[in-house]
Design goal:
The chain has 16 helices and 14 strands. By secondary structure, the chain is of the alpha/beta class. It folds into 3 domains: about 130 residues, Rossmann fold, CATH 3.40.50; about 120 residues, Putative Large Serine Recombinase, Chain B, Domain 2 (Hect, E3 ligase catalytic domain fold); about 160 residues, no CATH class. The chain has a 4-stranded parallel sheet, with helices on both faces. Strands 9-13-14 form a 3-stranded mixed sheet. Strands 10-11-12 form a 3-stranded antiparallel sheet.
Length: about 500
């Protein structure tokens, strides 16, 4: 009987995908020639562009899933490191072939199951060593005063000196941007003026200048002649001074302009409507029925909050919406709260909310059950992989640090799966025990009624909205429709409400 073969090809970067020597096309060609010489029938080709140290590769995961379904008999790869260069993907691959009986063969070398796991660990160590050497080289160049990144707007990169030099044309606009910003013009207005005057961006983007581009530009200290780079990976945490390297950079703006711009920025942050402490009961639930966009509330300088549609505010050239760009928040919030009071105050409204949710979930029962099986199986696989990684650490095949990193990643995935599993179980429980859920809801409603009085606070209103409302939709005529969810107490599996 002819064996069914699946071909797997992988490169780490898009640049490698175009390299004739190791391209995806070349790997697949060699694998197909190998299959032809063996008399195998190629049924599935899989290709990924990504690191071999992780299993989070679309076609790799698809291949593992179809291997468990018995879609093929053998996996063909150019070399073993194309399949895995780390513990985590190696563990997932070994588990899949053990369950399905699928075998692995490689073209450029002999595949040895007994040494594959060790080679995967060594491959991971090799990758970490490469990263370490690259980091050390980058740090050495920075300490020598060389820039290792592309030149920012206002500068050009000198290949001979490996340093930034001032681009006089762009530097003129950098000074102008800072001047406008100091005068009080917003980044949005500045970007509009730049686009109106036809000023090109650094990469000549067809979309022109964006508000965020201007906002980021006035925060860059290298325009004042101070360029600080960190030695490690980029992150949001503020680096300690000893981890920062000063790289000489030509000054474009004066120290006075820099200080004035930062003072203006600090003032804008304090005055920003986003720093308001007011509670808005429409947050997270209000959507546009016309285009499906989620609304947000802006306080505004006048103190009168308005509900804004991001799509219409930022992309007015797209398909127009019947709703205006902004809507009075107080009017919509009043409609929302009035609808909640009506439902809470009547048995008919409560019953309608429960029946509506039961119908919604019943229509999705098959898909919910299928997804629950997938999530449950994934949690079981994660538990097995975690045991495997711990056993490797005990055998000293990997370091404790590597084990902790892998276990931490699997734990995070398991938490996400647990949350989704609880949501799915809650929906299935709603299908099978609609009457019981209804009675539970009736027990919660009196507590809600007791909280609705003349002294109810905005925070109380927000909590009631989050408990009862799935989403609210505003149509082009300004009418609000509310989709309620069935409130439920904590169930045996730890999930609150639907």
């Amino acid at each position: 009987m002819t064996k069914r073969a699946a071909i797997y090809s992988r490169v780490s970067t898009p640049e490698q995908a175009e390299d004739d020597k190791i391209s995806l096309i070349e790997q697949e060609r060699l694998c197909r020639e190998y299959c032809q010489s063996k008399g195998y029938s190629v049924v599935f080709p899989y290709q990924d562009i990504g690191s071999g140290t992780t299993k989070k590769r679309p076609d790799f995961l698809k291949m593992l899933g179809e291997a468990r379904l018995g879609a093929f008999d053998v996996i063909i790869a150019w070399k073993t490191d194309r399949l895995a260069r780390g513990i985590y993907p190696c563990s997932a691959l070994m588990e899949a072939i053990e369950e399905s009986g699928v075998t692995i063969e490689t073209v450029a070398e002999l595949f040895d199951r007994t040494t594959f796991e060790i080679r995967a660990v060594l491959g991971r160590i090799e990758v970490e060593n490469i990263v370490q050497r690259m980091t050390m080289g980058r740090e050495a160049r920075m300490r020598a005063g060389h820039h290792h990144v592309k030149a920012a707007y206002g500068y050009d990169y000198n290949l001979d000196t490996q340093m930034w030099v001032i681009n006089e044309t762009e530097a003129k606009w950098v000074k102008q941007i800072f001047r406008w910003y100091i005068e009080g013009q917003s980044p949005n207005k500045i970007s509009q003026r730049l686009n109106a005057e036809g000023v090109p961006t650094k990469l000549n983007s067809k979309l022109g200048w964006a508000e965020k581009t201007v906002s980021d530009l006035v925060c860059q200290e290298f325009y004042a002649g101070r360029c600080l780079r960190n030695m490690g990976r980029r992150n949001k945490k503020k680096e300690s001074p000893e981890k920062l390297i000063h790289i000489p950079t030509p000054r474009i703006i004066s120290e006075e302009d820099w200080e004035a711009a930062q003072a203006r920025r600090a003032q804008n942050i304090v005055r920003s409507p986003r720093n308001t402490k007011r509670v808005y009961i429409t947050q997270h639930v209000l959507e546009c029925e016309e285009c499906g966009t989620r609304f947000h509330v802006a306080d505004g300088w006048t103190g009168n909050p308005r509900i804004e549609c991001f799509r219409m505010m930022r992309y007015p050239h797209t398909i127009p919406c019947r709703l205006p760009k902004t809507v009075d928040y107080e009017k919509v919030a009043s409609q929302l709260w009035h609808g909640i009071v009506q439902v809470v105050g009547s048995e008919e409204g409560l019953e309608a909310a429960v029946v509506s949710n039961v119908k919604r979930v019943k229509g999705q029962k098959d898909s919910i059950e299928q997804r629950l099986k997938e999530v449950t199986a994934k949690r079981a696989n994660l538990a097995t992989e975690q045991d495997t990684v711990i056993s490797w650490a005990r055998k000293r095949l990997i370091s404790e640090e590597q084990m902790e990193r892998q276990v931490r990643t699997m734990t995070d995935e398991d938490l996400e799966c647990t949350a989704e599993q609880n949501r799915l179980l809650a929906d299935l429980r709603l299908i099978g025990n609609g009457d019981e859920v209804y009675q539970q809801a009736r027990q919660i409603i009196p507590m809600m009624k007791a909280r609705i009085n003349d002294n109810v606070t905005e925070q109380d209103k927000l909590e009631i909205v989050n408990t009862l409302v799935r989403r609210a939709r505003l149509d082009g005529a300004g009418n609000l429709s509310i989709e309620f969810k069935t409130p439920r107490p904590v169930t045996s599996f730890g999930y609150v409400s639907s």
